[in-house]
Amino acid sequence: MNSVEGKIALVSGGARGLGGMTAKKLAEAGAKVLITDLREEEALVTLDEIATAGGEALFFKHDVAIEEDWAAAVKFAADQFGGLDIVVNNAGVASAAKPIEKLSLESWRQLTSINLDGVFLGIKHAIPLLRERAPMWSGGGSIINISSIMGFIGGVRSAAYCASKGGVRLLTKAAALELASSKIRVNSVHPGFIDTPLLRGGVDAAERRHEGGGQKYVDSIVARHPVGRLGREEDIANAVRYLASDDSSFMTGTEMVVDGGYLAQ
Ligand SMILES: NC(=O)c1ccc[n+]([C@@H]2O[C@H](COP(=O)([O-])OP(=O)(O)OC[C@H]3O[C@@H](n4cnc5c(N)ncnc54)[C@H](O)[C@@H]3O)[C@@H](O)[C@H]2O)c1
């Protein structure tokens, strides 16, 4: 089930959090994984965990917002692994948590350059390699873009984040239409609130604002998820693994919401 045996995957932002867990799940299911990230130290820990579990992975340091970095990362995948079958555009940063009136154009551009431009560049540069190997698999090549529930709904003090994640949702559909004839599938994943270092950053900030604020923040988020808990990294990584595998071969241009019921309300 959900096998990606023999496939080659690139996971951006794969050093930690959702990307780190996704890299581990893909490696466990038999894929060779290229982790790309700015964070070398955390990436090396993840690589170690994969190797200890008997998986195969490499690290390439790159910034998803820089086009030349993408060209170099894709070349590295070709040189080291011989191509690409799966690309998980996961790298992203959290909202600047400012109201629109106080949000500088520079902050807006900085966030969207990572969360949206980074996904565009990842798709653009991976296409030639994905196209080459797509005929080998019943499910073809697979691109999975990590959006958010905030790609469907707005949030206060989250304008740039929501805009970037909504952009990822429709970029996914446009790419899916363009690439279907090349046997490359493109889908988006929309996590609810997941317990990762990114979310913990928000908890710590709430705690700094006032004592006990961190726990209050967690409780308020949990209350918005009908299943009554935060998401776990595995919840998202398992969904990505499914979309990466041939089991999802009839799925393209669609949204997989993994949110404990958040958007059903
Ligand atoms: N955690 C959540 O609740 C949640 C919810 C919805 C969507 N998401 C999305 O999931 C993705 C992963 O989030 P996470 O919670 O694991 O965050 P995280 O901060 O734990 O991990 C993100 C990783 O991306 C890397 N990264 C950031 N900017 C980069 C850049 N310019 N180039 C290369 N790497 C870069 C970071 O170094 C980090 O290792 C993000 O796109 C995020 O928006 C997260």
Topology summary:
Blueprint: E1 8-12, H1 17-28, E2 32-37, H2 40-52, E3 56-61, H3 67-81, E4 86-89, H4 105-133, E5 141-146, H5 159-179, E6 184-191, H6 197-209, H7 213-223, H8 233-244, E7 255-258
Parallel strand pairs: 1-2, 1-4, 2-3, 4-5, 5-6, 6-7
Bound molecules: nicotinamide-adenine-dinucleotide.
Nicotinamide-adenine-dinucleotide is lined by residues 12-13, 15-19, 37-39, 63-65, 90-93, 114, 146, 148, 191, 193-194, 196-199.
Explain the overall architecture:
This protein has two domains: 8-194 and 233-264, Rossmann fold (3-Layer(aba) Sandwich), CATH 3.40.50; 195-230, no CATH class. It is 48% helix and 15% strand. The chain is built from eight helices and seven strands. Strands 3-2-1-4-5-6-7 form a seven-stranded parallel sheet, sandwiched between helices. The radius of gyration is 18 Å and the shape is globular. 46% of the residues are buried. The mean pLDDT is 97. Bound molecules: nicotinamide-adenine-dinucleotide. Nicotinamide-adenine-dinucleotide is lined by residues 12-13, 15-19, 37-39, 63-65, 90-93, 114, 146, 148, 191, 193-194, 196-199. Nicotinamide-adenine-dinucleotide (NAD) binds at residues 12-13, 15-19, 37-39, 63-65, 90-93, 114, 146, 148, 191, 193-194, 196-199.
